[in-house]
Amino acid sequence: MTNRERIINTFLGKPADRAPFGIGLGFSPWGETHERWKAESGIKDLDLRKVHGFDEDFSVVWLENGPWPHFESLIIRDEGDTIVQKEWRGITMRNRKDGGSMPEFLDYPVKTEDDWKRYKEERLHPDFEGRLTRLSTIDELKTKDAPIQAGVFPWGMFGTPRDLLGAEELLVGFYTMPDVIHDMMESLTTLWLKIYERIQVKVQIDHIHIWEDMSGKQGSLISMAMVEEFMMPQYDRIAAFAKANNVPLISVDSDGMVDELLHVMPKHGVNVFFPFEVQAGNDVREYRKLYPELGIWGGLDKNALADDKPLSAIHTELDRATEMLAAGRFVPQLDHLVPPNVSWKKWCYYIDHLRKLIGA
User: Fold this and answer.
1) Could you tell me the CA-to-CA distances from 53 to 5, 8, 151, 302 in Å, in that order?
2) What whole-number distance in Å separates Cα of residue 343 and Cα of residue 145?
3) pLDDT, tens digit (0-9, with 9 covering 90-100), for 316-325
4) How far apart are CA 265 and CA 251, in angstroms?
5) Mapped to the 3 state alphabet, what secondary structure does 163-191 carry?
6) pTM of whole model > 0.90?
7) Between 167-176 and 178-202, two packed helices, what is the crossing angle to 10 degrees?
8) 8 Å CB contact between 344 and 41
């Protein structure tokens, strides 16, 4: 069985020789973690895929799915340990220079309806010669034994408008300027589908990914009524494209508690979800009972590998993986990037046991 077939079949609940091994963000470290592992392992050019023999991950078609041309990137202020800069999406943020934390978002490119109209006219036009300059890389992707993916972070129905307006302004905007929010989601979807059409001409798309990050520990940031009204009509358009073009997988990435989203999104074409953060309250074993046809990707607690946790904590997660693998449609991975409180020794212990469990 090819790796491409294995990944697709596993998520769809079709026969596979084993589960995929080493695909997803749960097999990648934060930058600070990577530096720690290089020091502890003594491997200066540490490549986890080569060291551990991970399977080939999804082959992403990297095109310009957002503002084009990009905003000019510029450094506004150097603050010593931190730096304030405006980046290519038009977002102004404060970052630690060592990359050891999430950025602090300070300003966004859209504040008014007129800002949106100008942004859409100047940055979302289908200049395919510019947006698709890397379409030639598809020929290289064809040589890899992996499913072809269209769509990637940070593009989503909720996720992208949040990056345009800021989280608070988007949440308020659902009430104060609903027509603008509708237009954002519709315009973005139209752009993405036009891009996917161009990709599909050159290669069979296997996976459409939608990035949302629209939940916290308390659950979704908006009601399911709003999800249905604003987001799902566009999901239906994506699902219709997938059906018409034989695209087998549509996935969503959202951190936080996702129980409400799982009740709605699979009705609109989503058949894979990740990463199921354990600390937010997600238990993939319960979701498997509730949604037997959902491809579940993740749900193993990254905190179980922390320096201050016993090895038994890792085996608790391996037991969870064993139960999920037996139930099917499950691809194991940690529930997010590996944090810096995980030693190289602990990581290798986990990986070695997971490999044996999968039979890779």
Assistant:
1) 18, 20, 26, 20
2) 31
3) 999 999 999 9
4) 10
5) HHHCHHHHHHHHHHCHHHHHHHHHHHHHH
6) yes
7) 110
8) yes
